[in-house]
Amino acid sequence: MATFKNPHRVSVKQALEEYGLDSSIENENTQRVLLDSVVPACCDEGCEVEPDGRCEHGCPSVLLALGVI
């Protein structure tokens, strides 16, 4: 398991699973959610952010973490 300096940070897989999404970016449901104006952040607090943003805890959106943006 990856370790991060930010204690709230979680992996992309964990963030997507928290929303009931498949961690595979090819999954149709996952793609649909990731095209929304608000996406999950890689945060253990369940934050949602703009696709190119970070939450109040400093955790990036799943799209930033994946390198898509």
Description of the structure:
This protein has 69 residues and is mainly alpha-helical. The chain is 28% helix and 6% strand. It has a two-stranded antiparallel ribbon. The model has no long low-confidence stretch (mean pLDDT 86).
Query: Helical element count?
Result: 3
Strand content: 5-15%
What string, H for helix and E for strand, traces the elements in order?
Answer: HHEEH
Low-pLDDT regions: none
Strand order of the largest sheet: 1-2
User: Would you report the number of β strands?
Assistant: 2
Overall 3D form: globular
Q: What is the mean pLDDT?
A: 86
Helix content: 25-40%
Rg over CA atoms, rounded to whole Å, is 11 Å
Give the N-terminus to C-terminus distance in angstroms. 24 Å
Structural class: mainly alpha
Biggest β-sheet description: 2 strands, antiparallel
